[in-house]
Specification:
Blueprint lengths: L1 H9 L2 H23 L2 H5 L4 E2 L12 H16 L6 H14 L5 E9 L2 E10 L2 E4 L8 E7 L6
Antiparallel strand pairs: 1-5, 2-3, 2-5, 3-4
Helix pairs in contact: 2-4, 2-5
């Protein structure tokens, strides 16, 4: 933990700010998943059963950094912060930056058990939860409209 803190101190301010935002959003998402009913939380995730465009444009380094920070900071938290809160946090950060994204919820059957997974896509790039998504059947997707205000 000390090594992670020392690494953080050496980062440029812009990266520190994004890392702090990721930390706060991950914690908020974990808290909401523990305290809110899904139907109420789902209302905050955007338009149900919709998808944002999958443009084939280049992905900025900031989006790639966001992906790395979400994964790394979620690992450092003292509680379990898995795919769903990671996708929620990423979606909120992209929304603040007025970037479209789609949060997916999927299911698969494995060894007689049903497994759930969530992932986040910006354009054609999977920001969170990109491990094995092709094995999951999408049961819902949520997209926020990006406004210019």
């Amino acid at each position: 933990m000390l090594k992670s803190f020392l690494t953080f101190i050496k980062l440029p301010f812009k990266i520190k700010f994004l890392a702090l935002e990721v930390f706060l959003e991950l914690n908020l998402a974990c808290l909401q998943l523990k305290t809110k009913e899904f139907k109420n939380l789902a209302k905050t995730l955007g338009q149900s059963e919709s998808e944002s465009p999958q443009n084939e444009s280049s992905i900025s380094n900031e989006i790639k950094l966001l992906k790395h920070l979400i994964f790394r900071i979620a690992e450092l938290l003292p509680w379990k912060c898995v795919c769903f809160p990671q996708a929620i946090a990423g979606q909120r950060i992209l929304n603040k930056k007025k970037l479209e994204s789609t949060l997916y919820l999927g299911l698969k059957k494995e060894d007689g058990e049903i497994k759930a997974h969530a992932w986040l896509r910006h354009q054609q790039y999977i920001v969170t939860g990109d491990n094995g998504i092709e094995e999951y059947t999408v049961i819902n997707s949520f997209t926020h409209e990006v406004s210019d205000d």
